[in-house]
C-alpha cells in the first residue's frame, strides 16, 4: 500500500527555516515525481515545488524561488523541502504527493491529480 507521511512542520518566526520531509512506504520513490502543495485557510491548494523521477528536474512557484529547495534521497525513500527566509504568507498545511513517471521542470509544476497524497504537516510563520 502506497503511503506518504509528511513531517517537519511547526511554528517559526518570520525569517526562520524549516525542513519538511516526505517519507514513502509501500513503493520506491525513484520512479515517482514528488510534489509539494500548500493550502492556507480559505484558499485553494497551490503547487509549491516538484522534483522529477528522472534526472531530478525541479520546479518552484515564483513565490518561493530562491527561498525553498527540494531534494530527494532515494536511498532513504524520502523527499525534502528546505524552506528558508519564511514569511507569514508561507503559512499553511503542506502536503506531498506522488505521481509515477511524471516530469517536473522549470515550467511544469506538481500534478494536482497525483495518485497518492500524504496527510499534511502544518507550517505557521508568525511572530
Radius of gyration: 13 Å
- Whole-Å distance between the termini? 40 Å
Largest sheet: 7 strands, mixed
Separate helix tally: 0
Order of helices and strands: EEEEEEEEEEE
The general outline is: globular
- Strands, total number: 11
Q: Which percent band covers the strand fraction?
A: over 45%
**Overall pLDDT:** 94
Helix coverage percent: under 10%
Broad structural category: mainly beta
Enumerate the spans where pLDDT stays under 50 for 5 or more consecutive residues.
none
Quick overview of this protein structure:
The chain is mainly β. The chain has no helices and 11 strands.
Question: How would you describe this protein?
Answer:
The strands form two sheets. Strands 2, 4, 5, 6, 9, 10 and 11 form a seven-stranded mixed sheet that branches. A four-stranded antiparallel sheet has the order 1-3-8-7, with no helix packed on it. It has 127 residues and is mostly beta strands. The mean pLDDT is 94. The protein is globular and about 40 Å long. The chain has strands spanning 3-7, 10-12, 18-25, 32-39, 46-51, 58-60, 68-73, 78-83, 92-100, 116-117, 121-125. The protein contains no helices and eleven strands.
Spell out the key features of this protein.
11 strands, single chain, mainly beta, 4-stranded antiparallel sheet, 0% helix, 127 residues, globular
Task: Set down the secondary structure blueprint.
Elements: E1 3-7, E2 10-12, E3 18-25, E4 32-39, E5 46-51, E6 58-60, E7 68-73, E8 78-83, E9 92-100, E10 116-117, E11 121-125
Parallel strand pairs: 2-11
Antiparallel strand pairs: 1-3, 3-8, 4-5, 4-9, 5-6, 7-8, 9-10, 9-11
Amino acid at each position: 500500500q502506497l503511503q506518504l507521511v509528511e513531517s517537519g512542520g511547526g511554528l517559526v518566526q518570520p525569517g526562520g527555516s524549516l525542513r519538511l520531509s516526505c517519507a514513502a512506504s509501500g513503493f520506491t520513490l525513484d520512479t515517482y515525481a514528488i510534489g509539494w502543495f500548500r493550502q492556507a485557510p480559505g484558499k485553494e491548494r497551490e503547487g509549491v515545488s516538484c522534483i522529477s523521477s528522472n534526472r531530478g528536474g525541479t520546479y518552484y512557484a515564483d513565490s518561493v524561488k530562491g527561498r525553498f529547495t527540494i531534494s530527494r534521497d532515494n536511498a532513504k525513500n524520502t523527499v525534502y523541502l528546505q524552506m528558508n527566509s519564511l514569511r507569514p504568507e508561507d503559512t499553511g498545511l503542506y502536503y506531498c504527493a506522488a505521481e509515477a513517471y511524471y516530469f517536473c521542470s522549470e515550467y511544469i509544476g506538481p500534478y494536482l491529480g497525483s495518485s497518492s497524497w500524504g496527510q499534511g504537516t502544518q507550517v505557521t510563520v508568525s511572530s
